[in-house]
Every structure is written in structure tokens, then in C-alpha cells.
Amino acid sequence: MTTKEKTDKTVKTVKTGKIENMAIGNDTIAEYVPPSYVPNLKYRKITVTGGAGFLGSHVVERLEDKGVDVFVPRSKDYDLRTMEGVKKLYKDAKPDIVIHLAAVVGGIGANRENPGKFFYDNLMMGTQMMEEGRKNNLEKYVAVGTVCAYPKFTPVPFKEDDLWNGYPEETNAPYGLAKKMGLVQSQAYRQQYGFKSIYLIPVNLFGRKDNFNPNSSHVIPAMIKKVSDAKRTGTDVTVWGDGSASREFLYVDDAAEGIVLATERYDKVEPINLGSGMEINMKDLVNTIADIYDFKGKIEWDKTKPNGQPRRCLDVSKAYDQFGFKAKTPFREGLEKTIKWYEDNKK
User: Fold this and answer.
1) Under a CB-based contact definition with an 8 Å cutoff, are residues 155 and 313 in contact?
2) DSSP assignment of 235-287, as one string?
3) Residue 37 has what pLDDT?
4) Which residues are catalytic?
5) Residue ranges of domains in the chain
6) Model pTM above 0.90
7) Which pLDDT score, from 0 to 100, does residue 218 have?
8) CATH of 41-207+251-278+308-330, one of 3.30.1330.90, 3.30.420.40, 3.30.230.10, 3.40.50.720
9) pLDDT of the residue at 107
């Protein structure tokens, strides 16, 4: 007997996609109600912008493992900062679902040097991709934001409800705000047009195939390269800041799994954090990398350089509650895998 057939009884329910307690008459039972919006991705054409990049390549791997027809646009063929390039993409790919991962990103140094570029490029790509998705009657649009959108002094752990309670950390603000406009657009389009889009907020990522270019890399690949080079040359390591800032990190394979799960199972207006729930300060991070390398040199902290946001650690309970995502890779294990990949591929 289905829930709809129980019309003669009082039914207190029920979130889709979970086991819930239901009061029927005087009895309480547990029933699993599959979400009605779960698409079978195998029979959908999915476009992954940024699919040749660090995170995107892992998302594409996950989708292809499921037998999905994936289209990966390349920047030389589609300039997504222009409406012409975006329209060409939709015309050529004819997607049912878009996962928008393309972004212009970098560490603290790159953000300080390119605030205007990071703001404009990311804003234009996201805004135009979603607008054309609406016009092309997409089945679903997955916007992937950034933890840099959170206010500088967000209480830890960061909850999705805190997203608008202050201004982001200054060096990341142009990038973070440009990406956060994807949430505003997503919610506005759902309200006015019924457009099915979701917004995910991943924490700092790391893993194999990361960007190790010292001019644009994030903290973990930057530190791995510094320690690797210092051990090879017998020199010391200099790190920005005083080591007190903390971060949460998510292994890229886990992030890709979370994005695919959300694409399948999540369809609500509220943003959702993707993270591991594990916080580590910069001194402990650098010491852990040095320990894996068995590096015996000196580590110096350049306190004239910025720390960035004082702390970052997400409340990740909603991702588990809404679509069953939980990070699986222990942090040190992820570091060891990342270091091995770098050492095997750095030449």
C-alpha cells in the first residue's frame, strides 16, 4: 500500500530519499521513499565545464564509470566568458544536465594580483551558462561555488545559514563573491522560472592531478612542491603567514563523488557544503608534509605575508542528510597519494 493510498489515515511525513518515521494512526513505522527527482544519469547527456581541469577530470571519471555520455568543452573552442561561446556550447553539446566547474582560480598570491580578472571571468561564465541553460530548458544545472564565499569571521564550523552574515576575507572576496552570485541566480531562477538548479560549496580540495604551478597553486600543492624541492636541493622552506590559520581539506576523489551524488539526488534551493569536517592549522599541515618526505631542513614562516581567512571548517551534516555524502579518504592517506602522484609526474 503506497502513501497516497493511505487516505483514510493520518500520515505525518516524510523527506524524500531517506528513511523517515511516519505516524499512521497510532503506529510508527519506517519507510524509505525514493526521491522523485532522481535522474538516471546513464541516459542523460551531461556537459561538465572545466571537465579537463583538476576537479572536473575526476567528476568526468565518476560519470564515465556510470556509463554517462559526457561532453567536456575546451577553452580553445568555447570561451565561456562570452555569450557567443556559451551559445555555441549549448548548440554543439545539447546537454540534458550541466555541471558548471569552469573557474579562474588560484591561491592567495594569485587572488591578490588578479582581483578584477577573477571577479569578471568567474561572474560572466557562471551567469551566462545558467541563463542559456534556462533558455535551453535544461533538466538540471549544478553550480559549484567556493568556500571563499563565506564571511571572513564565520563561526566554526561554517553553516550554510551563515553564508550572508558578513564580507569574505579580503584577498579572496572578488572571486568568492563572483561565485556566490551563482547562488543568487540559482534561487532567483527557481523562483521565477521553476529552473532546476542546485548550488554546492566545496571546501579546499587536493589530490592527484592538482595544479603545482607556484604562481597559481593552492596551499597543499604549493607546500608539497616547496618541501620536495627543498629536500632535493638541501635548502630550507619558507612559508607565508605565521602558521596559525586553519583549513579544512577534501580529497578530490571524495569531492567528485559528492558532486555526482548531488547531481543524482539533490534538488532544493538551499546551498550545501561539501567537505570532510576535519580542520588543521598551517603549521601542522606543513609538518605533516615534511614528515611524509622525511624532510630535516628548517621551516621558516614569513609573517610579512598574509594568513588569509583565520579559520575554515565546514558543517557537513546537510550533505549527508540530503544526499548521503560523507568523505571517505583519511587526510594523511590523501596527502600520501597526492605526494606520490606529484613525484611520479613532476618531470
Assistant:
1) no
2) --EEEES-S--EEEEEEHHHHHHHHHHHHHH---SS-EEE----EEEHHHHHH
3) 53
4) 175
5) 1-34, 41-207+251-278+308-330
6) no
7) 85
8) 3.40.50.720
9) 74
